Amino acid sequence: MNTSEKIIGIDLGTTNSVLAVIQNGVPTLLPINGQRLLPSLVGISPAGEVLVGTPARNQWVVAPDRTVRSIKRKMGRGELVTMAGKSYTPQEISAFILREIKQGAEAALGYPVRRAVITVPAYFTEVQRQATIEAGEIAGLAVERIINEPTASALAYGYGLDTDQHLRMLVYDLGGGTFDISIIELNYGVVEVLATAGDNFLGGDDFDERLANMLADEFMEAHDIDLRQDHQAWARLLRVAEETKIELSAAPFATANLEFIARDLQHKPLHIIREVSRYEFEALIGDLLDRTITCIDQALGDAKLTAADIDRVLLVGGSTRIPAVWDLVSVRLEREPHLEIDPDAAVALGAAVQAGIIAGEDINAILVDVTPFSLGIEAAEFGITGHLQIDMFIPIIRRNNTVPVQKSQLFVTMFPSQDKIQIKVYQGESPIASQNVLLGEFMAEELQPNRPDGLTEVTVNFQLDINGILDATVTERKTGKKTSAQLKASRQRLSLEEIAQSQAKLDVVYGDSRGEMEFSPLDDMVQIVDPGVAVLLDRAQKTLARPDLDGEMAAEIAGVVMDIHRATADSNNEKIEEYCDRLIDLLLEVE
Ligand code: ADP
Ligand code: MG
What we know:
Layout: E1 7-12, E2 16-23, E3 26-29, E4 38-39, E5 41-44, E6 50-52, H1 54-62, E7 67-69, E8 81-83, E9 86-88, H2 90-109, E10 115-120, H3 126-138, E11 142-148, H4 149-156, E12 166-174, E13 179-187, E14 190-199, H5 204-223, H6 231-248, E15 253-263, E16 269-277, H7 278-302, E17 312-316, H8 323-333, H9 346-359, E18 375-382, E19 388-397, E20 405-412, E21 421-427, E22 437-444, E23 457-464, E24 469-476, E25 482-488, H10 496-525, H11 531-544, H12 551-569, H13 573-590
Parallel strand pairs: 1-10, 10-11, 12-17
Antiparallel strand pairs: 1-2, 2-3, 2-4, 5-6, 5-7, 8-9, 12-13, 13-14, 15-16, 18-19, 18-21, 20-23, 21-22, 23-24, 24-25
Helix pairs in contact: 2-3, 4-9, 5-6, 5-7, 7-8, 10-11, 11-12, 11-13, 12-13
The structure holds adenosine-5'-diphosphate and magnesium ion.
């Protein structure tokens, strides 16, 4: 192909802009100034130089009057913005960004580029689309086509390349400052937007702000200094809040570290070193995430559809890497959303696909290596009724995650004085651990409790490489002591028949030794001091080992046994007696 025919794909985002092209038939990101994402900020330096991307982002913190961000929100509004004392149209500001992208493309490809496909939100009006085309022209780019961001995401996933496809998709796009829901229908090569909803002022920036405010509040409490009044301190707080947030997408804890953030009255330097848990962060932003679910309801309502009418759910935008987003969306839409294609690159990759189609290039689907199974561990949990649920499968790396991948999650021992835990690693999709494939097991021993209630927190980290080698590591919170094991995950997807066979096989084994399997953890889990109680528990354990025991009864007995352990841990003699009486009644019923 004549290189002058090359068309580039551009995601001109509110927060970040991304560039992609078809290379050897494959949609590929091209770095701009060495970075995957170009922050969508423009500024003028004190020396009068134009700054685009990261330098502008850095300057915004200290010189907001010389810097412009989020210009996309103003596109097509006929409103001017001021930068370093001069006024510009939104098209002009966007053109600075597009020019940087054009130059980046030329640097990467080694030849001039003139043509582009640019994406816009599905709800953009004709005026806003026209403004985007003008921005391209100002930057020296012929805009071959404007396409909708959700359509681009679908194209990145390869949907719509086949003209005999009929699919309804919901695209959930949570970026830095905006949230868009689009329901689109691919109908034999034609894309129709059925509904759009969202919030133009909701995204990752708000999450950063919530976290930064929490840190500032705590600092205020401790030192009576409001960091929000200090421009630079606040900017640093926001930056660190974002880093911490991003870390929390992969780990259950992250530390916000801000040394020399202020000085006290004696001029002594003050620092913030604050560990934040994922749980805490999710609680901080819970209401914002709930709002996104309300938008889903609204879009479904507008399209007169229900969750069951949606064939695919795609998650795009950097903020969809927050695990709680996946969880909320999968519950609301009753299916597993897709997140295999880099969520902050999907739109640009789709723009490149469209560009390639226009230029007449052969296009192969984007190849992503994914894990075909979820990987996780067995755990037990006290349910709302206070009864113990055992043999639960807790996924740590979910199916369809791109590899390599690393994820970790927090677990807590069941009882005070428990000084070891057995980690059983499973692969599969059943919520019942023993119905999945056991990859291996190992013990973490000599644990030291770190919580006031005597329980021990551990982080379980899974690292899966492209060859399916899984490194599982348990890290004790108190001492940081690590116990690891290397396991081999099966990368082959079993046929439905094979799965059914394996399940039947497991059912047999499960039926044979259910009591024992369910109860083996108890052996290492508790110490009961009262000999009378110990004898009773022993009797319960024998009963639970009986293969003919009714499942419901087994659960009930197991629950009371756990209640006894719990009451023992609390030294609550009244409760111990009450539960022992209950246990005796139950045992009499079955013996
Ligand atoms: P936009 O489409 O608005 O230009 P992006 O899709 O690039 O934005 O998303 C940018 C947002 O995604 C930022 O707020 C950034 O902090 C957030 N983000 C990026 N990676 C992660 C991550 N791993 N976890 C949580 N948020 C992330
Ligand atoms: Mg975007």
